[in-house]
Amino acid sequence: MELIDNLMLGFGVAFTFQNLLYAFGGALLGTLIGVLPGLGPVATIAMLLPSIYALDATPALIMLAGIYYGAQYGGSTTAILINVPGESASVVTAIDGYAMARKGRAGPALAAAGLGSFFAGCVATLIVAAFAPPLTEVAFKFGPAEYFSLMVLGLIGAVVLASGSLVKAIAMILLGLLLGQINTDVISGVPRYSFDIPELTDGIGFVAIAMGVFGFGEIVANLARPEEQREVFTKDVKGLWPTKQDFKDAFPAVLRGTALGSVLGILPGGGALLASFAAYTLEKKSKGRPGEVPFGQGNIRGVAGPESANNAGAQTSFIPMLTLGIPPNAVMALMVGAMTIKGIQPGPQVMTSNPELFWGLIASMWVGNAMLIILNLPLIGIWIKLLTVPYRFLYPAILSFCCIGLYTLNNNNFDVYMAAAFGVVGVLFYKLGCEPAPLLLGFILGPMMEENLRRALLLSRGDWTTFMTRPLSAGLLIAAALMIVVVMMPSIKNKRKEAFQDAD
Question: For residues 46 and 68, what is the distance between their CA atoms, to the nearest angstrom?
């Protein structure tokens, strides 16, 4: 009953004209940046952070959330039509989605992606609404030791669940932790690793790293891709509605993808990207009907499953961010930054101190998902037209917006130079096959880990056993250790390698 009351409060907030407008704006912008290759939700949200100073907290967060799950929808359009994922979580969708487009079945592929995402979004919204309050109660029992152990689990989760080499993922985490140490020591007030550069005494700006590695790095990587690879199926998009057989094939995949994405989104280090990879692997292992199109050649399950999973994963990743104040992925880290800008401390107290914001944000997810169906399927012709614009005309505009956004953060050229330097680093990562997401998580969680570690040791008078004598803390550390043991097992190691190779 309490849940219904809370949701009614949320819908009352979400259905105000202002919030509906910002939800629509976020969904539209999210779809746009999902469709345009080279500009993901991380870079876009980073760009828009300066603009939220002028907004109230609730519409600002509703808009940013709309951009995130809107990008999951939009990314599938480019993945299906031109085999270029507009968003990293759509990498897997390109395998069978593009094959369907080549066979003249782009319409059913786009419909399966859109309807699957809508169903998953609705289910994930209910999960967020149901699970957030009990988790908030648990979060109030957390002290410095528990928070430290939770962040250790989050970082190990990011390593285990990252695509590609485990060694590279660990290196990315460690590099992120090291970059997070460039700041002023909280206790002594002495600048660390700033090399006498005044701008570095407050640390490297998160936005500069995010935009450099993801924004600039992605643009350069896209420019390196030959133009002739971009075959746009403008003439083949007809008969949007899937056949009866398509529905029969896709529906079980949507259910499996939604369930898997909802679980993986909650896990530290999880989110949309991991959910889509895992869902594709699950579909390949699941038994299909006799005479079904093989995977990799245009199987509709290979589109419906991952697309449902990435949307469910995107929305349930709000749970640890809203209840514990711990970002499970790079986008949630930016959302934490946005809340801090608005003077709201992310964590369990948000639900009690700002119930309108908390429940309004959850209700707006359902509203946003309904808007996305309207934006994506009937207006598919507009998005196709956008895809016909040559990339050489798009990238200067994207770069200009990125630089304007960076400069307006502190009205300082230094942030632009830093982002450019990290752009070079991002290209290097791309060439070496290193996934940059663990770096961002390490960078965000590193200073928080250090602070909670020192606080826990101060409270225990230097006794390190405090992390094992407190039951919650010990449980989280044991879970982290088990995660390492499981992933090192030969059978799991091989399956993990196989899953990520399929998606390459």
Answer: 12
- Strand boundaries in 232-305, DSSP class E: none
- The pLDDT, as a whole number, for residue 449 is 85
Count H helices and E strands in the chain, helices first.
24, 2
* Both structure tokens of 106: 């782009």
How many whole angstroms separate alpha carbon 124 and alpha carbon 127?
5
Can you tell me the distance from the alpha carbon of 152 to that of 172, in angstroms, rounded to the nearest whole number? 15
What is residue 183's three-state secondary structure?
A: strand
| Structural tokens at position 385 | 């037209």
CA 212/CA 215 separation, integer angstroms: 6
Q: Nearest-CA neighbor of 217 among 435, 427, 431?
A: 427
pLDDT attached to residue 192: 85
Among 330, 377, 258, which Cα is nearest to 68's? 330
What is the pLDDT, as a whole number, of residue 34? 77
> Phi and psi of 208, rounded to 5°?
-60, -45
- C-alpha to C-alpha distance for 120 and 303, rounded to whole angstroms: 13
Helix, strand, coil percent values for the chain (each to nearest 5): 75, 0, 25
Contacts of 236 (CB under 8 A, 6+ apart): 101, 104, 105, 106, 107
What is the value of pTM for the model shown?
0.72
Task: State residue 402 phi and psi, 5-degree precision.
Answer: -60, -45
Measured CA to CA, the distance from residue 275 to residue 307 in angstroms comes to 9
**137 three-class SS:** helix
Determine how many CB atoms are found less than 10 A away from the CB of residue 465: 9
pLDDT attached to residue 409: 66
Buried/exposed code over 177-206 (b: 16+ C-beta within 10 A; e: otherwise): bebbebbeeeeeeebeebeeeebbeebbbb
Strand partners, 184: 191
Select from 218, 200, 184, 208 the least CA-distant residue to 75.
Answer: 218
Residue of 70, 78, 85, 80 whose CA lies nearest to 108: 80
Beta-bridged to residue 183, according to DSSP, are 192
- Residue 388 makes CB contacts below 8 A (sequence gap 6+) with 232, 234
- What are the angstrom distances between the C-alpha of 497 and each of 278, 287, 294, 473, 480? 12, 21, 21, 31, 21
Which of the residues in the chain have pLDDT under 70? 1, 37-40, 83-89, 158, 160-164, 215, 218, 222, 225-240, 267-274, 377, 387, 391, 405, 409, 490-504
| Residue 226, pLDDT score | 64
Distance from C-alpha of 187 to C-alpha of 300, rounded to nearest angstrom: 56
Please report, for the chain, the start and end positions of each structural domain, with discontinuous segments joined by +.
Answer: 2-224+243-503
